[in-house]
Amino acid sequence: MSISLDDITGVILAGGMGRRMGGIDKGLRNYKNAPLALHAMMRLSNQVGSICINANRNIGVYEGFGVEVVCDIQPDYAGPLAGMQAALSNATVPFLVTVPCDVPAFPTDLVKKLSEPFENNVSLMLTVAATKGRHHPVFCLMRTELLPSLEEFLRKGGRKIDAWYANIPHQAVEFGDEAAFHNVNTLEELKELEQKS
After folding, report:
1. Which of 118, 140, 143, 171 is the most buried (most CB within 10 A)?
2. What are the names of the required cofactors (predicted)?
């Protein structure tokens, strides 16, 4: 089974509180004269059939990017799993791939590589990006039929992505460039990243 791009919706996770950036909406923070979430969207757009953004504030601004915006079902900024739940609840295709809004240089072959293990493993439910054996849980490709599993995990108070998929048939996919998965948590880190690139 080869996954068609039309069967994958890309999800930009921009629903967090941005605590370490002083509570600002991180996805709308400028990087190289454009919002971080827009960089993520442009980088993902050629890798998937459709895109949506998970956001919980400044909805009109995100809608101005020209894509659908889905808000958390869970209250109180419950983290990336809540964004995944919202996107899964809204999904109309068999697969979702998620990326955070604060990693502007993730690989341009992310989805291609995350898709490959599904071709030879019909029982596989989720793939996750890894570098040197370390998982990057917000970068994952999942079957949309995982929604009930995720909802049950959230109902029980679970919040960690890797704890959720630990008991689901999954596979880590190795990428060579660790720096490509570096996320920006503070304004200082954002400045440093701009200066380096």
Report:
1. 140
2. Mg(2+)
